[in-house]
Amino acid sequence: MATPVLPHPIVLMEAERGMRMHHMLWHTARNGWSTFPQAVRQAFAKLGWAPPRPAIDAQRRPILDNDSGEDFLYMHHQMIAEVNDRLAQINDPAYPKVEGWGHFPAPDDPDYPVPAPYSLGSPDDDAGLAEIKSRNYFQQTFEPQATRFEDAEYLRTISLAELGARVEFTVHNWAHLR
Question: What is the extent of the structural domain holding 10?
């Protein structure tokens, strides 16, 4: 079944420079904080962007136990709420609200096709991107991880904060790259 086309005012809202900049700065501050030089930290803090809980440690590993995962879930929940508020104003019966996928779309999904890999500027990065976009990666890595996040037995063993961190640094990031 074909997915309804996202109303153009929503596309424009999400494409606004301020919206894109907010999202990028939010992730950059959290993900880079532990490795930023002091001057960069001070500049971010002066602008009100010092994260209460960094998401990645100095060795570039996700931090699973400092509640940054809850921050991730909350911020994305707020983004979806903003889109749904605007959709309510638009009142398009074909697209009343954003609804999540029951499962991530397969690589050959006609409504959500995976674009071809593009160059990131380095052979290693290009190879990594091509791998993440591959059918094999989807089947061997992406899909099993997504399924794990649907497993009630597994979810009982981790906190909401850990879940958010694990989602952010696996299927969320992979979906952006795909």
Answer: 1-100
> Are 149 and 167 contacting, i.e. CB atoms less than 8 angstroms apart?
yes
Q: How many CB atoms lie within 10 A of CB 165?
A: 27
Q: Are residues 24 and 5 in the same domain?
A: yes
Measuring CA to CA, which residue among 106, 114, 125, 104 is closest to residue 172?
104
Total domains, the chain:
2
Residue 20 shares a structural domain with residue 91? yes
The per-residue pLDDT for range 119-172, each reduced to its tens digit, is 999 999 999 999 999 999 999 999 999 999 999 999 999 999 999 999 999 999
Buried b (16+ CB within 10 A) or exposed e, 73-96: bebbeebeeebeeebeeeebeebe
Task: Return the exposure string of 36-58: e unless at least 16 CB atoms fall within 10 Å of the residue's CB, then b.
Answer: eeeeebeebeeeebebebbbbee
Distance CA 89, CA 86 (A): 5
